[in-house]
Fold:
Amino acid sequence: MNPSLLIVLSILAAAVALFTINKPRMDVVALLVIVLLPLTGILTVPETLAGFSDANVVLIALLFVIGEGLVRTGVAYQAGDLIIHHAGKSESRLIVLLMLAVAGLGSVMSSTGVVAIFIPVVLSIGGRLGIPMSRLMMPLSFAGLISGMLTLVATPPNMVVDSALRQDGQAGFRFFSFTPIGCIILAAGVIYMLFARRWLNSAPTPRKHTSRSRRSLIDLVREYDLSGREYRMRVLPHSPLIGKALKDIQPRRKHRANVVAIERSGKLQKNIINPTAHTELLAGDILFVDVPTPDPEEAAAISEEFGLAPLPLKGGYFTDQSREVGMVEVIIPPSSGLIGKSIVEAEFRSEYQLHVIGLRSGSTSLQDQIMERKLKAGDMLLLIGPWKAIRKIQADSPDLLVLTLPTEIDEVVPASRQAPLALASLLVMVALMVSGLVPNVLAALIGCLLMGLFRCIDMSSAYRSIHWQSLILIVGVMPFATALQKTGGIDLAVSGLIDVFGKAEPRVLLGSLFVFTAVIGLFISNTATAVLMAPIALSVASHIGASPYPFAMTVALAASAAFMTPISSPVNTLVLGPGQYRFGDFVRVGVPFTIIVLLISVLVVPLLFPFR
Structure:
């Protein structure tokens, strides 16, 4: 092993370790790689930055925009409505329709985005039918992962492997090259989940309270145990609070009380004000106060100390003010910048104009010290504030994913009338990709321009929809393939595989590549895994004189087979909290299905892509 290869492997090992602990963020690690590799002299600066000019990187960015157009026009949500309509009261029918819908949508847009859209749909359906969330959320995540196996553009690993083929002088895959295998795996996944759901927790769901397609404010109040915490108080003329800003009062220090809204008399009518740290209180203001540890004596003490007069309440936890004040349930995604911060440190009131009134971790609703608790991926928060702020967080918040919008909010998507035009734009893109009339990246660009022309999406939304962290990660990991090629690392890995499995039939090599890829995918992202494994797969094929296509396809499928742990994919992490899962649930259900996917890949891939 030469010194240059040792340096590359050391940098790679360090990057993998940092990817595993996710400190610093993966895109930051990728940028460090871009800086370090040229400094070693192993790669030139143009070689290190080549990923920025890769057509598939641009294609991935454009597909984020296409997916956002489908969300903004309500196409994705309409799919959920169809499931509700056709599933009836059958749990089996619901699982089949859910997995087919998620896989279908995920074949043309981000699987993480699709799963995020369908989580509230599944919550409402499960609550209506009394089905445990644990029996629905895992089929949802599995379908999201399988969607990456259905088309060329379904997931970045497919495009990474396709790019490696083209750089090797091959023709690359076509749009539907993955579809026959993906459909077989999807069918196997549906059948498997109809049986495997019995292995999951079957405790009755606590969400039987509503027959509507979405929960109401009252439902959220009940689930987060907010009853009795709300107080309505008038600021009396002699109150010491008059003329003071909320930041100067800070009653939370002593009583842990928070003002979530203020009713103030205007010239013609009373107005509901969203309080900020700089809001000054006036005599006659009516304060809507949240006290996390409700106690009549505590309320009396607050009233006496601050010159407030208690007022009667008309609705549970201010639901009588639902025209002005709303609630939203959100989940912390794995890529959120809020992870590791407390609610106080995140400055929710200043950043989002919303106040945190509830926190759930898994199935537990936390009551004590929620403001100081460090946030984790999968935590669910209940926020209260004006509907305008809630709509803003729904449209533009990379650190929070909306889980539940109560029935009180107007169900209006920004561009609902453009839904047919969004579908038409999508079909044009797919038709161009299938026909091969233009390169895939141009087909996607045409689709994006049509979305903009038909006002399915605006430029601001288009730029915000692109997941830049994923793109930087891809670009930063790509130089490793070149570095390993130049230093002999690829040849070393291939020699090892050939020494162990070289005398066996090619299907054994396919199986070993699948296992190797799937195991690496447990620790780093599936995209990074594909970047590292694609050149190894092509070299193995070249070494034994076989076609590169079955080996490239196997690596792509294995990179998407992240079923085994809740942290092996953002899709799994998203359903961890709503499904109330433990780590072992994914191992118990995911490992057998990964073996099924392995067997299907080894048996079917060579039939569609012969070795010779």
